[in-house]
Amino acid sequence: MPRHTVAKIDLDALRHNYRLAQHKAGEASAMAVVKADGYGHGIRTVARALSADAPCFAVACLEEALAIRDEGLSQPIVLLEGMHAREDVVTCARLGLEPVIHSDYQLAWLEQADVRVSVWVKVNSGMNRLGFRAEDLAGVMSRLQGWDVRGFMTHFAAADDLASSATTRQTRYFERAVVPWPEALLSVGNSAAHFRPDQPLYHWSRPGIMLYGASPRADCDGGDLGLKAVMTLEAELIAVRTLNPGDSVGYGETWRAQTPTRMGIVAIGYGDGYPRHAGTGTPAAVNGQRIELIGRVSMDMLAVNLSAAPEAKPGDKVELWGDQVPVDEVARHAGTIGYELLTGITVRVPRVYHQQGRGGAA
Length: 362
Ligand SMILES: *Cc1c(COP(=O)(O)O)cnc(C)c1O
Fold this sequence. Notes:
By secondary structure, this protein is α/β, with parallel strands linked by helices.
């Protein structure tokens, strides 16, 4: 019997979240961002589950696009980092992939290719990660003459922060930069941009994290934005005992019982991708009760205080995050964001998929 440490994936919740993104996108269409193995949920199953709704997918790199094509899905796929090698141009042409061109060396590869692909042009509107500045665009576009340029893309540095003026500044910069090409499609919005009042999303938005039910913002959880948790991370209680006052728990003896304390050991740790920085007080749930971690997370196990759930016994299932415990809340306790937790679940944890009464492992 394999141990019961699983990431249950609710594909109906995934579709609910995609439809919310599409609704929030208004006139724009939403390309489903499924990079990083579908934010840890399994790119193949995620893409298949969204394929009836999503007119386009976006990924970071070629390998991810190949996985989607391998599933027999024929939507356009945008490569957000463009080509990583000269020969990728041929693969893009063969498989209908749309690379985002952000640098001169990629333009040179295109000029030397004897195939044609549809491309996007990345505009650096202030994030200073990838893209061309406004004054370079005329030169870029003249080098792309004869190519199908789908449009222009930019990325926001602080769309998650409603108090920051960066998004307005970047939007203005982008709009001015693309004035000479009124026919081009425009794409600016990550998940956070869908929740900014009055933010234009133009033709294509690019929701990622929101599809998986986690919040793109620090000031609220996914549920507050109308999102449903897609992944429920679950593991079994494998030992239960009562500590005497003065007894410590785990490596470094960082937590010590003050009073007689019922506690349990759960079969999950940082070797599964559960964050080691989640300290004492990080929430979990057992049998519908909220409980808290105590002591240090080890590689294969962690400890919980069962004072709030005294009936809990070996074999009971503990939710580390999911419907009852927002991944965003665990992330705050671990000093990180839901993105990192979801993408960090390791291959040791099987993903088990559910939709409308159907189940299955992959
Ligand atoms: C990852 C990514 C997105 C999606 O961002 P979320 O915050 O997950 O919605 C959109 N655009 C680009 C360019 C990205 O790299």
